[in-house]
UniProtKB/TrEMBL annotation:
It comes from the Bacteria. This is Membrane-associated phospholipid phosphatase. It comes from Rhizobium aethiopicum. The chain crosses the membrane at residues 6-28, 40-62, 82-104, 160-178, 184-203. Coiled coil: none annotated.
């Protein structure tokens, strides 16, 4: 792991989850969201579903592979291969971070906000086998965090819009009453960390990323014009 940065990020993450759990989870569980907020959440929350994100990553991978086979120039082939590895990276982060989140939420067994009045916000039933006790961490938020963190690492120039999108889509899980704020924060952090670790592994394999002197993964650029929007 990169020195210094990960300790600070982990410290911030733990404190953000703890403070959110102590200050915000109870009010969210005890109250009803306004109807307009629910409708907005229902409208946007589907974008955090892993199925279509996985489809995008698979499409990028096979499109890149097909381009590598069909295109003639070395430059075009290199760009197509680059796109295919982006698809592979996104697939790795989304799928495996989602599997990890699902394992954790079943092992932790936290009751969802719908059951706040019955069990409270600190009710844990590990491996209950019931979706009502699979709140922490949020699987949707983990997927969203992994997907947009991956793009932020690949295209750091646009990291602020990517972060904003991740926060908005993750918080829709609170809007629809499916998760507590701390579930969402934990999921975003888990997805982001997973993308970072996966990028480091790819960098050590010489794919997509290179390691900076401090160990942080930096996206490789095949050609200068690939920095421009739409070059891919």
């Amino acid at each position: 792991m990169p020195p210094l940065r990960w300790q600070a990020c982990l410290f911030i993450t733990i404190n953000a989850v703890a403070l959110s759990m102590l200050l915000f989870d109870a009010p969210v569980g005890a109250s009803e969201r306004p109807e307009a907020v629910k409708q907005l959440g229902e409208l946007l929350t589907g974008f955090g579903d892993s199925a279509w994100l996985i489809c995008i990553s698979i499409l990028l991978f096979f499109q890149g592979r097909a381009g590598y086979k069909l295109l003639k120039t070395a430059r075009s082939k290199a760009q197509a291969l680059y796109v295919s590895w982006i698809g592979a990276y996104l697939f790795t982060t989304v799928v495996f971070s989602g599997l990890l989140a699902n394992l954790l939420k079943r092992a932790i067994g936290r009751a969802r906000p719908d059951h706040f009045h019955d069990y409270g916000m600190f009710s844990f039933t590990p491996f209950s086998g019931h979706a009502a006790f699979e709140s922490f961490p949020s699987g949707h938020s983990t997927t969203v965090g992994a997907f947009f963190a991956a793009f932020a690492l690949l295209f750091p120039r646009y990291r602020i819009p990517f972060i904003a999108c991740a926060i908005w889509l993750a918080m829709t899980r609170v809007m629809v009453g499916a998760h507590y704020p701390s579930d969402v924060i934990a999921g975003l952090a888990l997805g982001g960390w997973f993308s970072l670790l996966t990028a480091i592994v790819y960098a050590r394999c010489g794919l997509l990323f290179k390691l900076a002197p401090d160990g942080w993964p930096l996206a490789k650029r095949l050609f200068p014009d690939m920095e421009k929007p739409g070059a891919l």
